[in-house]
Design goal:
The complex is a heterodimer of chains A (470) and B (216). Among the domains of chain A are: 156 residues, Aconitase, domain 3; 155 residues, Aconitase, domain 3 (2-Layer Sandwich), CATH 3.30.499.10. Chain A is an alpha/beta fold and 470 residues long. In chain A, the strands form five sheets. In chain A, strands 5-4-3-6-7 form a five-stranded parallel β-sheet. Chain A contains 15 helices and 19 strands. Chain A starts with 8 loop residues before the first helix and ends in a 10-residue tail after the last helix. The radius of gyration of chain A is 22 Å and the shape is globular. By secondary structure, chain B is α/β, with parallel strands linked by helices. In chain B, strand 6 and strand 7 form a beta hairpin. In chain B, strands 1-6-7-8 form a four-stranded antiparallel β-sheet, covered by helices on one side. The chains are: A alpha/beta (470), B alpha/beta (216). The complex binds iron/sulfur cluster (SF4). Iron/sulfur cluster (SF4) binds next to loops of chain A.
Chain lengths: 470, 216
């Protein structure tokens, strides 16, 4: 009998990666995989240049251009001078320091959190960081993945390590079966609406329960992606056969015998019987319906059939103030239903929901239908590979017939940094992850929802219970 | 060159002075200043610095766009009601509502606050990544109780010339006769007081990290 204390998957991976745990210092944590992009890396490379040091291990860093890139005419030079400069700076830095870059035009280019998994760079048991908060996406494979700041990007480039304190652990268990028309985006929006935008701050979350086990790999990524929206450092799901099947044969994944060995190791990662968490939450999948947000943080969400809370339904004065401020920005009334609310834009994209299954889900709903005439619909695949696959399957034809515009990969309207912006005052139903003020463009108004709900709204031109159309 | 052994912190000031003319160069011990009140909760980093201003490739100049969309209207005219445009308030301390700095991990948020001239942000709750980013740039995030936060905000709004004293050594925040002790990670405290930097410590572990990388 082993006398070792039972551990959670998070603790197992963490403990394996501590290079040094000196008294008075945070842990020096070894990082297996580092992703970089054009926005949060230039100052980090500058730091290396000023110190006159090289990248510690170039094989562990992969770069792509995603945040600033146009999603139309990607073969032409980027129009906006500052964006162009940032992408060019990334090119120069990657060439100078010897880092693989999946640049515009490369068959592997795409949103950083989409390409890692699809290339098999993201694997179970790893530590993964990126100067981007949605790095938590990779946790769907059963690893420790989290977003970092630029000073930390510099640390990782220079030393392949980062100084960190171990987070507390939280288990979120969702049991039971979700109903028809309810997808993984609804599960995570539901959890966040229950525990608030700061409910998991300081924690690393493990998602468990049969409602999670039954999800595909891509659907699991959607769940882990939004861990940060409840304040968590990251979120993960223990790997299983679904995980191994997804990884098998991917470009950079271990092959042949090595793969089988790796699977044996990965099987040891799951949380031990008897291990304890600092916090445990449970939800019943049957309570979840298609979700929609009404406010200006992802915690302000509800079932699409519910009503926006009224001020006196909230106890805290501060919550009441937040609600009034948000609703004023959104141009909505307390106590109102959102069903039937007319929308102007539909954005299907982002690292939350721009994988091939998301596009298939949308296509299956809109096949043979057309969008409402007053609505503009953008479908932005998460990567070049997703785009190719969509074309191969003929989804592009379905979108075209429906009046949806299929664009080229990038972060697009998720963050209003590139050319794709929602105009001031306009309503956008979006499959992305943030509904902050101005996130999709100055004064834009965002409703977060699943790809199914977004597709339903595209067809009817208004907020619709997706279950009526599936 | 900077590979050091023994004391990991050797040379970090030299680094600061050459690498980071502006950021975090000063050592932080105590600060006495008036403060700017911003009693809004869940201020996310998209508000602190909207994405369209993240295109610079250096760390400087972000202060101009701090709270851009709250500070200026679409014609770039200052919005009078916003606190940074209100000449009543000034100082090196920003006092803000709960869950400050949530959302995107952009370090630009910490840079813009620092670049604008703030040295301290006080709130009753900070998002993790923001807190880390702030500390890595010599910007001190101080967590106070909800009650003390209210007292602070009231005191500043009643009398904008009220001075707040931040005593990092003793971890005390004081306004008038009321004070509260705040918690701070001891390692980060040492870094701030001495102007040290994480990367120097990590560089000193070079050999151990190499061995780890090979064995992994
Ligand atoms: S798609 Fe949106 S959330 Fe994801 S990495 Fe890009 S900007 Fe960030």
């Amino acid at each position: 009998m082993s006398i070792e204390k039972p551990k959670t998957i998070f603790e197992k991976i963490w403990d394996k990666h501590v290079v040094k745990n000196a008294k008075g210092y945070p842990d020096a944590l070894f990082i297996d995989r580092h992703f970089i992009h054009e926005v949060t890396s230039p100052q980090a490379f500058d730091g290396l240049k000023k110190r006159g040091i090289k990248v510690f291990n170039t094989a562990r860093t992969t770069a792509t251009a995603d945040h600033n890139v146009p999603t139309k005419d990607q073969h032409l030079p980027i129009k906006e001078a500052l964006s162009r400069h940032q992408v060019e700076t990334l090119r120069k830095n990657c060439a100078e320091f010897g880092i693989d870059l999946y640049d515009l035009g490369h068959p592997f280019q795409g949103i950083v959190h989409i390409i890692g998994p699809e290339l098999g760079l993201t694997l179970p048991g790893m530590t993964i960081v990126c100067g981007d908060s949605h790095t938590s996406t990779h946790g769907a494979f059963g690893n420790i993945s989290f977003g970092i700041g630029t000073s930390e990007v510099e640390q990782v480039l220079a030393t392949q390590c980062i100084l960190q304190y171990k987070a507390k652990t939280m288990k979120i268990e969702i049991n039971g079966k979700v109903g028809k028309g309810v997808v993984s985006k609804d599960i995570i929006l539901y959890i966040i609406s229950k525990i608030s935008a700061s409910g998991a701050t300081g924690f690393f979350v493990e998602y468990a329960g049969d409602a999670i086990r039954n999800l595909s790999m891509e659907a699991r990524m959607t769940v882990c992606n939004m861990s940060i929206e409840m304040g968590a450092r990251g979120g993960l799901i223990a790997p299983d056969e679904t995980t191994f099947n997804y990884i098998k044969g991917r470009k950079f994944a271990p092959q042949g015998e090595k793969f089988d060995q790796a699977v044996d190791e990965w099987k040891q990662l799951a949380t031990d019987e008897g291990a304890t968490y600092d916090s445990v939450l449970e939800f019943d999948a049957a309570d979840i319906a298609p979700m929609i947000t009404y406010g200006t943080n992802p915690g302000m969400g509800m079932r699409v059939t519910d009503r926006i809370p009224t001020l006196n339904e909230l106890k805290e004065i501060s919550d009441q103030t937040s609600l009034s401020k948000s609703l004023e920005y959104m141009g909505l009334e307390p106590g109102a239903s959102l069903l039937g609310k007319s929308i102007d834009y539909v954005f299907i994209g982002s690292c939350t929901n721009a994988r091939i299954e998301d596009l298939r889900m949308v296509a299956s709903m809109v096949k043979g239908k057309t969008k409402a005439s007053h609505v503009e619909v953008w479908v932005v695949p998460g990567s070049k590979q997703v785009e190719e696959q969509a074309r191969k399957e003929g989804l592009d034809k379905i979108f075209e017939q429906a009046g949806f515009e299929l664009r080229s990969p990038g972060c697009s309207a998720c963050l209003g940094m590139n050319e794709d912006k929602v105009p001031a005052g306009k309503y956008c139903i979006s499959t992305s992850n943030r509904n902050f003020e101005g996130r999709q463009g100055p004064k834009s108004r965002t409703f977060l929802a699943s790809p199914l709900s977004a597709a339903a709204a595209a067809i009817t031109g208004k907020i619709t219970d997706a279950r009526e159309l599936v | 060159m900077l590979i050091v052994s023994g004391c990991a912190f050797i040379n970090s000031n030299q680094y600061r002075a050459t690498n980071n003319e502006k950021m975090g160069k000063d050592k932080f011990t105590t600060l006495k200043s008036t403060a700017v009140p911003l009693p809004v909760e869940n201020i996310d980093t998209d508000q602190i610095i909207p994405a369209r201003f993240l295109k610079a490739t250096t760390r400087e100049g972000f202060g101009d766009n701090l709270f851009r969309d709250w500070r200026y209207d679409s014609q770039n005219n200052p919005i009078k009601e916003f606190v940074l445009n209100n000449s009543k308030y000034s100082g090196k301390i920003l006092v803000a509502g709960k869950n400050f700095g949530c959302g995107s991990s952009r370090e630009h948020a910490a840079w813009s606050i620092y670049d604008f001239g703030f040295k301290v942000v006080v709130s009753s709750f900070f998002a993790d990544i923001f807190k880390n980013n702030a500390l890595n740039n010599g910007l001190l995030p101080i967590v106070v109780s909800d009650k003390f936060l209210k007292q602070l905000l009231n005191a500043i709004e009643e009398k904008p010339s009220s001075e707040i004293i931040v005593d990092l050594e003793n971890q005390i925040l004081q306004i008038g006769s009321v004070k509260e002790k705040f918690e701070i990670n001891q390692y980060k405290k040492t870094c701030l007081i001495n102007g040290y930097d994480d990367i120097d410590y990590l560089l000193s572990l070079n050999k151990e990290i190499r061995e780890f990388d090979l064995a992994h």
